[in-house]
Amino acid sequence: MSKIAVLIAVALTAATVTIVGCGGAVEQPAAGVATQPQASDAATAAPVRPSPLPATPAVTIVATATPRPTNTPSAAQAVTDLGGRLRIASVPPVQQLVGSWLGTTTAANMQVRPFSDPLIHTDRFDGSLVPGLATSWEANEDGTQWTFHLRDDIEFQHGWGKFTAHDVPHSTGLIVKEDAIASDTGIFRELFGNTYDDVINNVVVVDDNTVRYDVQVPNSIVDFFISAQQGNLFMYSKAQFEAEGLDGYEARPAGVGPWQFEERTLDVNLLYSRVPDHYRRSPFFEELEWVLIPEENTRLAQLKTGQVQIGEISRELHIDAVGSGLEVVQSQLPSLQVTFIIGGVYNPEAGSECADGGERCFYQPDEPHLDVRVREAINRAINRQEINEQLFDGIGQPHVVWGYHPALPGWNSRWLEEHEEKYGFDPERARQLLKESGHEGYKVKLLLTELPGVPEMIPMGEATYTYLTNVGIDVTSEAVEWSTYRADYYRPGRTHGTIAASRGTYRPAEITVRSYNRSGPTGFWRTSVDPRTDTLYDLATRSMDPVVKADALRELGDLKFDLYSEAPIVWLPAQLVIDPREVGEYVWPGNINASFTHTEYITPAQ
Amino acid sequence: MQRYILVRIVQSILALLVLTVIVFSLARFAGDPLDVLLPLEATVEDAERVRAAWGLDKPVYVQYFKFLGNALTGDFGESIKHRDQQAIDLVFDRLPNTALLAGLALVVATVIAVPVGVLSAVKKDTVFDYLGKILALTGQSLPAFWLGLVLMWIFAVNLGLVPTSGKSGVTSYILPAISIGWFQVAALMRLVRSSMLDVLDTEYVKLARIKGVSERKVVWKHCLRNAAIAPFTYFALILGSLMVGSVSIEFVFAWPGVGLLAVDSTIARDFPVIQAVVIVFCVVYITANLLVDIAYAYVDPRIRFS
Amino acid sequence: MAAEDRTSPVPAAAQDTEALQPERSRLSLGLSEMRRLPWFPVVVLLVVLVIPAVFANQIAPHDPTRGSLSSRLQPPVWQEGGNSEHLLGTDKVGRDILTRIIYGSRISVIIALIAIVVSGIIGTALGITAGYWGGWVDALIMRLVDISLSIPIILLGLVLVAALGPRTSTVIGVIVVLLWSRYARLARGETLAVRVQDFVSRAQVAGSGHIRIMFKHILPNVFNSLVVLATLQVGFVIILESTLSFLGAGVPRPNPAWGLMVADGRELVASEKGWWVSLLPGMAIMLVVLSMNLLGDWLRDRLDPKQRQV
């Protein structure tokens, strides 16, 4: 029996190897250079908002971002026939929702944005805030009153009547509902009021086409928070709410977007149909369908077999996708920032919660990470260039200070100049620093988390495991979900002795500081290398003077840079794989929470 | 007899009660859904507000009895992840998809396992026996998710014979059913084989042979019919493992079934849905087992008294 | 998978009565039978599983958890671009796959061994008790078996990992929860058959204690079946581990568990650029599980009386 068994087993295994291992030869795609977006010349009524500067050019293997055509929208004029159903294979969002107050901005951008619009829109080429439902807006001097002038020619879908200023406080109020869990619920409650009723009072309907936000705490980027770039506040019909309640939204939400909601099957798909004569852009496809597929390979398989036309595919498979005639496109702007957060860096002067016997005890004096030399050693041990080239196909841009980008307010060009000198890969120096600090061979737990948009997070973490071990740090690694992280490390204030991979989106630096460096309750990590952090944060958030604001942010960035508060790795654009036989052009900014927005501008292949 | 059935039913209900406690604690043990669903920036106050709004702030035992009371009427509460959706509806919406897939997988398994099992019993130690065994064992030697992926690449992408994933036409059932079913072949084959060997050895078959009934008829008619009873005992077990096998396969093939729902709701710590899924699984399993036992009691009176 | 045990809970009891004789007990393979040991599975198991597991430190060419990104995704030596530094190529992080497979065998062996021994002991003890005592003890234990079998095991794994984080001990615990009931069912069935036999009654008459009877008279008679079941389950445990890894509930990184390797490399399974990352550990799993099953089938042919008679 055994002889035959061997033969068969060998034959079987050999067959498997042959079938799987010997696919068609993949052609190495030609190298190209991503074109940087140009500065926006669109004048807006907004307070001064610096437009993105050209950043360091990114050399890419497969992806290109579409250059800005001189006449927007370029492809639009060329389109003669509408496409049929545009199917996009996507990772299932954390929350499947039609109410934007029920989930993160990422979930809302995907599912709500097609059928409804925010007051302020974003330019698909440079990501700047541009008029949407609001044609113009202005703020008073101290940033406590923001007035928006609305279009008066907008109708809600499904016959729910005209969009007016009355819908604005209603839609804003939904975000702070007692069971709301939107990303912005916290900041909205801080800015506009704690309950639906408070918000109705604070968001004043001046007339049918004018609405004024009376802000509780002065804030210089209120327009950002209610804009499409943040992406939680979309317009819902007050009339529908009064007639049908939230159940009506659940069944058939009426919005003012370029698509209208048709139906959804949980965990399967969401379907929208085209709205003709939309005020911004009527889609070039009759229908839009998000096809939810959790497994990476399966999304690629769907693309290859033409079952979907666009798909989220990890960079590792781009070569295979391109080899079979698909194309990789990337967002106009960087979309994600990737970093390692060094745990336990709390500032005793920011107030230790240990003192009142509370659950959380952030400041622990014996934490090795409190020593700047240890933090520098960690930064020195990591080979960013290798990570970018090997894991990200070289498309990444240098990331110097967590939260900061050359195109965002508060940037300091010194950081990039000194980057190599202060953060360059130097394991020898790292070992030396550890020795000097007396923390040679200290124990650290490297927390690896899979996060949407960066499937390379795990391999990056595993490579970093090697980097850190190489300089003599005693590393153990653990894969954790974010929620577990929150429950086990953050909530009890036990980030001591950990290094965790994290990602953030492209947004004003103060928002990253708010989540990561501030000592207040919104500080997720409370990494504070200097007692000035909170003061500078408050100044930056409140000042309506762009110069003061940028200076405060820059000073904050200087502290973070010089004191190695995190170990930033890379800025990445968002990437998608498209089927060029079906899809012509897709231009999206990518700065909107890394979401795939502006689907109404996607053109069919001609 | 009636007493036996009654006792077994009562036992099963008690088992289910114990299960509710286990499931309830397990689901709570998994962690706090708010840690998953709340945004990064949420403060402790935010968490408390939502907790109260969602009714998660009551003491655990209160939650348990509320859950138990409602569960008896089929109400498992609203999903935490999908607000406004009844947990039990989510499960029942998908149950047919999973059941159909499991049924087809069972067909696949049977179609391969029965002939192979019979042949390897009758033609022991021949090429048929080995070939059949290898075929059966291969399915059991690969992780189902991996087999599913490889099958998808070969038959859906390279050959383009079937859709890659999702539930669409009849053809979309083929790959997932094979991926789940193949794994069961080996176990089923062993059952068929050993019970065939049992039957082949009985006086009654010997008698048939003596009487000159053709070998083919002996094997395929007399023996198989009798040998089929033993695998029936395992119906519940196999059903259970089919349901479990479906989890990773539903994930691979983006199949809108209970398995995928189970994974999702566990990741989201969506208690009501986790509880509904597990309880439905358990009810199905325990009922199947109960029915098998009762059927056996009818067939074989000795059981009632043992 | 659920039904490796041939003996059905009760009906088989009667059938087995004549077949099981006390003399046939214990793991008694004659020398002539040992000679007929199927060499393919045995050699495979030695080469792929046992030797690597024991001598991993000596034979592995590289470090199993560390690699260099610059040497990532190198193909195996026989492919273009491969080199003899990494005979089976490297993974996404540049770690040597051969090394990881070698060290992975150790993890597989440890998990399988602990899980099977623990669940075997628990299951057998409960199964024999149930079969021997009958009545409410039997009912209680069998309903426990029902409960354990009806909990969807993958879910249990996910929940435990969510609560405790991915740990090898969690994986083992989950597997034990699933497996003990198989032994219990089998042991109970066999015990029912053995209990009614003369030698048991004689022992009872002679005044032996219950524990002694269970240990001395019943256990040896059910042992063979348990060994067969255990052999067949080694493969199942390895597969289960990999499925748990696939769903993110398996052995923690950067441990080189086979299942984790297969799961991690799966998106490259059809890629020219990295099919070996998942396929080669997959082959290791397949070879071991196939061999374990062949060996199990062979063992059951030798140890199972029914097969002997045919």
Would you give an account of this structure?
The complex is a heterotrimer of chains A (606), B (306) and C (310). In chain A, strand 17 (443-448), helix 15 (457-470) and strand 18 (474-479) form a beta-alpha-beta unit. Chain A has a domain at 333-572: Dipeptide-binding Protein, Domain 3 (Dipeptide-binding Protein, domain 3, Roll), CATH 3.10.105. Chain A starts with a helix and ends in a 28-residue tail after the last strand. Residues 1-63 and 69-73 of chain A have low confidence and may be disordered. By secondary structure, chain A is an alpha+beta fold. In chain A, helix 4 crosses helix 6 and helix 18 (533-542) runs antiparallel to helix 19. Chain A has 19 helices and 20 strands. With 306 residues, chain B is mainly alpha-helical. Chain B starts with a helix and ends with a helix. Chain B contains 15 helices and no strands. The mean pLDDT of chain B is 81. The longest helix of chain B has 36 residues, at 87-122. Helices cover 77% and strands 0% of the residues of chain B. Chain B has helices at residues 2-29, 33-37, 44-53, 60-72, 87-122, 127-141, 144-158, 174-200, 203-210, 215-227, 229-233, 235-252, 258-267, 271-299, 302-305. With 310 residues, chain C is mostly helical. Chain C has a domain at 93-302: MetI-like (MetI-like fold), CATH 1.10.3720.10. Chain C has helices at residues 11-19, 31-35, 39-59, 97-133, 135-150, 153-164, 168-195, 198-205, 210-246, 258-264, 275-303, 305-309. In chain C, helix 3 crosses helix 11 (275-303). Chain C is elongated, with a radius of gyration of 22 Å. Classes of the chains: A alpha+beta (606), B mainly alpha (306), C mainly alpha (310). Chains in contact: A-B, A-C, B-C. At the B-C interface, helix 1, helix 6, helix 7, helix 8 and helix 11 of B face helix 1, helix 5, helix 6, helix 9 and helix 10 of C.
Layout of SSEs?
The complex is a heterotrimer of chains A (606), B (306) and C (310).
Chain A: H1 2-21, E1 32-33, E2 59-60, E3 63-64, H2 74-78, E4 83-90, H3 105-111, E5 120-122, E6 129-131, E7 134-139, E8 145-150, H4 167-175, H5 185-192, H6 196-202, E9 203-207, E10 210-214, H7 222-225, H8 238-251, E11 259-265, E12 269-274, E13 285-292, H9 296-304, E14 310-311, H10 318-323, E15 327-342, H11 372-381, H12 384-391, E16 397-398, H13 413-423, H14 427-437, E17 443-448, H15 457-470, E18 474-479, H16 482-490, E19 498-505, H17 509-516, H18 533-542, H19 546-562, E20 566-578
Parallel strand pairs in A: 3-15, 4-13, 4-14, 17-18, 17-19
Antiparallel strand pairs in A: 1-2, 5-6, 7-8, 8-10, 9-10, 11-12, 12-13, 14-20, 15-19, 15-20, 16-20
Helix pairs in contact in A: 4-6, 11-14, 18-19
Chain B: H1 2-29, H2 33-37, H3 44-53, H4 60-72, H5 87-122, H6 127-141, H7 144-158, H8 174-200, H9 203-210, H10 215-227, H11 229-233, H12 235-252, H13 258-267, H14 271-299, H15 302-305
Helix pairs in contact in B: 1-14, 5-6, 5-8, 5-12, 5-14, 6-8, 7-8, 7-12, 8-10, 8-12, 12-13, 12-14, 13-14
Chain C: H1 11-19, H2 31-35, H3 39-59, H4 97-133, H5 135-150, H6 153-164, H7 168-195, H8 198-205, H9 210-246, H10 258-264, H11 275-303, H12 305-309
